[in-house]
Design a protein that fits this description.
The protein is α/β, with parallel strands linked by helices and 310 residues long. It has helices at residues 42-49, 70-74, 92-102, 107-120, 136-148, 166-181, 193-199, 217-222, 239-248, 270-282, 296-304, and strands spanning 2-13, 16-27, 31-35, 57-62, 65-66, 77-80, 154-158, 185-190, 202-207, 210-215, 228-235, 254-257, 260-265, 285-292. The protein has a six-stranded mixed beta sheet, with helices on both faces.
Length: 310
């Protein structure tokens, strides 16, 4: 059953087309990833769904309720923005009570929801503490609790692990997996490949406001057919030398990331020999050349000709 349905969604800011005809749906119990670089249109899309931005055209429905029926629509979804939105000089429990009143919760029902939600995010024992005393990861978890307080069936998570430590990141992953197992639909935006690979049943790769490919991890990887990621480490790796190497190997997609060159190649180990032969002509002195099986990074490189974090 589709919980969220987007159809032909468009949004422009002056001359800039931020969202260009997006269409997709998310089922109950599914974590759906929007994967793309900063500026790809992920946040604009999620802000439209959260009713913070009005689209130029297209439709959005949550559990069959159209975007235009704003009050009923908003009660079905919970939104976790990129920036933490909490009152620092209030306690965790006071923050959640304030949010609950916005959804007409009160009395015993509100108290039960606050305690249950604090327990869900692992902060029940810190409910009486001021938010300003919390770590970045704890604030992120409380931000998620605020979005869950009214028990929505759709959760919108916009880059929820930004700025958190590895331990808090894993905790958020486990929380998202638990929420999906309870039957909620989750829309998860990220520019981290490993997050999409771990969490998302399906992923849409988005760039310049358009979906370039969409499917399960296996379906997306099959888009690159027999392509592999050739990783070259060594001396002389610059934008110019790697570009020349890629051109010499047939103008194949490439990127330079953290001191290593990545080239999208077809074929077997013979591609390594070809790269080694051409490297000396371009001024590269390889210390290591290896082939890596395809992953989402390769899919994005193949589809766009550039790195996800460009």
């Amino acid at each position: 059953m589709a919980i969220l349905e987007l159809q032909s969604l468009k949004k422009s800011y002056g001359e800039h087309l931020a969202v260009d005809g997006l269409s997709f749906s998310i089922d109950a119990g599914e974590v759906f990833g929007l994967l793309g670089p900063n500026g790809a249109g992920k946040s604009t899309t999620i802000n439209i769904i959260a009713t913070l931005v009005t689209p130029d055209s297209g439709s959005v429905r949550v559990a069959g309720i159209p975007f235009e029926n704003e009050d009923a629509f908003k009660r079905k979804l919970g939104y976790v923005p990129q920036e933490v939105s909490l009152a620092e000089r209030m306690t965790a429990r006071e923050n959640l009570r304030l949010v609950g009143k916005l959804y007409d919760l009160s009395g015993g029902d509100l108290r039960r929801r606050v305690d249950a939600t604090l327990d869900l995010v692992g902060l029940l024992d810190r409910g009486g503490d001021l938010v300003e005393t919390f770590s970045g990861g704890m604030k992120r978890r409380l931000n998620i609790a605020a979005a869950l307080l009214h028990d929505p069936i759709l959760l919108l998570l916009d880059e929820p692990t930004a700025g958190v430590d590895p331990h808090a990141r894993v905790y958020i992953f486990e929380m998202v997996e638990r929420l999906a197992s309870e039957g909620r639909a989750v829309l998860y935006t990220t520019h981290y490949m490993e997050e999409a690979e771990r969490l998302c049943r399906r992923t849409a790769i988005i760039d310049h406001g358009r979906i370039l490919a969409m499917g399960t991890l296996g379906e997306l990887i099959r888009r690159v057919e027999a392509k592999r990621d050739m990783v070259i480490e060594g001396r002389g790796l610059t934008e110019e030398t790697v570009r020349k190497l890629a051109e010499g190997m047939g103008r194949i997609p490439w990127m330079l990331n953290e001191g290593a060159a990545h080239l999208s190649v077809a074929g077997d180990q013979r591609a390594i020999l070809r790269a080694a032969e051409l490297a000396s002509e371009t001024g590269i002195e390889p210390t290591s050349i290896r082939l890596v099986e395809p992953n989402l990074e390769m899919v994005f490189l193949e589809l766009t000709g550039r790195a996800l974090r460009d």
